[in-house]
Every structure is written in C-alpha cells, then in structure tokens.
Amino acid sequence: MIINLKKQPIVQLINAHLIDYPTPSNISYWWNFGFLAGMCLVIQIVTGIALAMHYTPHVDLAFLSLESIMRDVNGGWLLRYTHANGASMFFIVVYIHIGRGLYYGSYAEPRGFVWILGTIILLLMMATAFMGYVLPWGQMSFWGATVITNLFSAFPLVGSKIVTLLWGGFSVDNATLNRFFSLHYLMPFAIAAVALVHIAAVHQDGSNNPLGISSHSDKIGFFPYFVLKDTLSFVAFVMFFSFFVYFYPNELGHPDNYIPANAMVTPEHIVPEWYFLPSYAILRSIPNKLLGVVALLASILVLLTLPFINTSAIRSSLYRPLHQIFFWLLVFDFLLLGYIGQQTPETPFIEIGQVASVYYFAYFLIIIPQLGYLERDLIYSSK
User: What is the span of the domain harbouring residue 241?
Assistant: First the structure.
C-alpha cells in the first residue's frame, strides 16, 4: 500500500501554515519576534520538564534541590541558567512584539481577536513567571510571594478567601509551594494552546504589514523566504541569549535569591523580577491598596480595550507622525516605570512614578481614541 503523504491532514496543515502560507512580501524583521516568542516557549517547556525531574517542591528541600541541580546533575547548571534567563528572554521578545503591534496598528480590525488572544498570552505568561520565581525558595522568592499574594486581600468580601486559597493555609508555606509548582508546570501548556489559536487567527485574516494596507496582490510563499529570515533571526537571538547564559547568568536575577528563604528576616527592599517592574511601579504610585491593585491589573487589561476604542482610519504609524511621537513617549515612559519600580518608595521616585503612570493610562484610554478623531479632522481640513 502506498501512502500519499501530501494528502495526510497533518502534512496539509503544516503545508498551509508553514510552507505555502501567503505572506506579505514587505514585512520586516520586526515580524520575526512572533516566531522568536514561540521558540522561547519551546525552550522553556523543554528545560522546565528536565528541571522538574530533579526539583523537590518542599520548603525544606526546594533550595537544596536547586543547589543539587547546579552541582551534581550533569549539565544541570546549563538547564537552570537557560530556564532562568529564558524567562527574561521570553519577556524581552514579547514586549518588542507588543511594541511592534502598537506601532503598526495590529490591534485594528480585522485583527482585534488576534490582539485579544495575545493579551491573554501575556497574562498567562506573567502568572507563570511569578509562580516560577517562587520555586527556588530564596529570600526574594518567599517575600515576593508573601507581598504579591497579600495584594488580593485588598478586595472586599472575597479578598481574604482568595489569599487563603492561594496559600493553602494561613501563611506562605509548603502548601503554597506545592500549588505554585503544579500550576507553573501546567500553565506553559495552556500558553501553548492559546498561542496555537493565536497563530490560527493570524492566518485567518492574514498578517499585517508595515504599510498597514491590504497586501492581497503582493504576497509570496512563507517558504523559503521567511523561513530563512526567521532562521537568521533565531541564530542572532541564540547568540544574544547565550551571552547571558554563559557570561552573565545572574545579571537579570536578584542576589537575595541565593539566600535560603527565612520568614524571620525581611529583605531591605523587596522587588519582583525586572519584567514586572513597570506594573509594580504603577501599583506603588497609588497610596490606596485596593486602587493600587486595580491599577496593577488594569495596566495589562487596558491592552484589551484597543480593538474597541481605536478610531484611526490609518493603521500604520508610518503615516501617523503624531502617533509616532506619542508612541515613543510611551516606550520611554515604560522604561522609566521599570526604573522607578526598582527604587525605594520615597521622594522623588513616588512622584515620578505617579506622573509616568498617568501618561501610561492616558496613552491607551485618551490619546489613542482622540488621536483618530484629530487625524480625521486634519485630513479633511487639508482637502
């Protein structure tokens, strides 16, 4: 019996999405970050499974099991450093991917559903990364878990019940570590599932392009042109990634996490990982605990509003000079919030964080919708 591989469903699926998929001929290297995000997810899942084989989710053994992985397991140091720095690389790639989407209007119709799925992936990533940060059971792991989970107590009526559910008791302890380990192991597969739907949604309406216009008349096959382009970007990414893994493996982490967790000793300054710092700065800029938690959640959820509040008839910022100014101010604002998030909560950092937080939300909720109307008025007034 002769099997025609070309007619097999899985082969046809691969061919439709990776070989013959019609791709706008003018997309730039900024579009490669979606592929790189997928590669980061694969790296995290593979290294995470390998680490889980040696990790012990117990408050008395978790820290020691990581030391054993680093010292006794063949290649364990490489697995641990690849996984730890891989989380940072993942967020770097995803933040650039989101920035590209903001600049080129990838949230505009008909790709609103694609944007919403991307935001859901970001939320899942943040939850997964936070729980992973707790697993080493160092000082910053323990106190970070204590501070962040305690934020849920700000919600009236249900807050304390949510905290107790997360802790599995009345304090951050062994039950907390076990729950976080189980969820941390599970959630990357949920991210992968949503990512597949995200890709399918992108391919349903076709990829956006730098010009922001219909490109149906100017498309080429994904293979070999963009496969080679993605391969080149992946090689460059691996070189950048390897630089941190081999030469500066602890540069993106916190030194206090190499101290075993001690509930009796509070670190002088509790900070999350760097990729949470902008949202953390927004949280600290509001003196009211409940409003601060709401602002923290809103700093991510506000991305979901873009497909609904966008009023611009022009998709790409290449033809929106005013939006270019506001966009690069947002990039600066985001970096400033990251810097403020790692500083002690005192003057002038609190005031700077408040101003930066106001602009962050103003960009999404005021500037984006109003700028579309302003551009429309300027276009019609020039005719």
Answer: 9-270
